[in-house]
Amino acid sequence: MTAPASRSASASASAHDVDTRAPILEARRLVKTYGRVVGLDGVGLKLYPGEVLAIIGDNGAGKSTLVKCLTGAEVPDTGELLLDGRPVSFKRPQDARAAGIETVYQTLAVSPALDVASNLFLGREERKRGILGSVFRMLDTKGMRAKAGRELAELGISTLQDVTVPVENLSGGQRQAVAVARAAAFGSKVVVLDEPTAALGVRESNQVLELVKALRERGIPVIIISHNMPQVFEVADRIHIQRLGKRAATITPQSHSMTEAVAIMTGAQTA
């Protein structure tokens, strides 16, 4: 299976072309250990503007640890992180969010009792202008709903036209769309998706993949962690392969087949 021919200009560059650009996010020689267990062993990664970078690997390969170090959920023992070419140090996820890195985890952090708009602005609620907001601390519900509607429309999410619907009434795919839309709305630099289609059916998975493509079209770089190889080869511009805590290779859907990617992932083949 090969990747679709229609890609955005920035995303369709070859691996050689991509390497000529400055990465928006870069990890250098990351090491993370848990006692005697080595989670990361000198891992490097580069994410370029307007691309989808997939991270794949067997269980225990270090995928989750790598992403946690990139997003502030874990602090690497040694190594360096750079954002827009400048060194950064994330001690907690809030630090990464403040820097413009939004993460959507497999266990969605949505509040079922709240409506779609309230979930998009969860933790970032906007207050009314003037004395109503500053003194009486009244939320600007109307304004947040309007902005939520525009954000969903820009991402082409047609299944969520009513932003006043409680999230508990939505399907799994729609809930994932809400989480992705929230990340897109506030992730000014990078959006990270951890197994975004793991618990979804075929139709809902396709909707999420369309969201990933929409983010790329908006110029927002995306890191996606997935075990689903056909989906990876459909949306990824480059594929970072983890094996035994190390980066085994970085390939593209044009340079390698799915079979070759799996062989590298399992150690049966080198890049």
TrEMBL record:
One of its GO terms (molecular function) is ATP binding. Keywords: ATP-binding, Nucleotide-binding. The keyword rRNA-binding does not apply. Residues 25-269 form the ABC transporter domain. Pfam families: ABC_tran. Signal peptide: none annotated. The keyword Transit peptide does not apply. InterPro entries: AAA+_ATPase, ABC_carbohydrate_import_ATPase, ABC_transporter-like_ATP-bd, ABC_transporter-like_CS, P-loop_NTPase. SUPFAM superfamilies: P-loop containing nucleoside triphosphate hydrolases (SSF52540). It comes from the Bacteria. PANTHER family: CARBOHYDRATE TRANSPORT ATP-BINDING PROTEIN MG119-RELATED, SUGAR ABC TRANSPORTER ATP-BINDING PROTEIN. This is ATP-binding cassette domain-containing protein. It comes from Herbiconiux oxytropis.
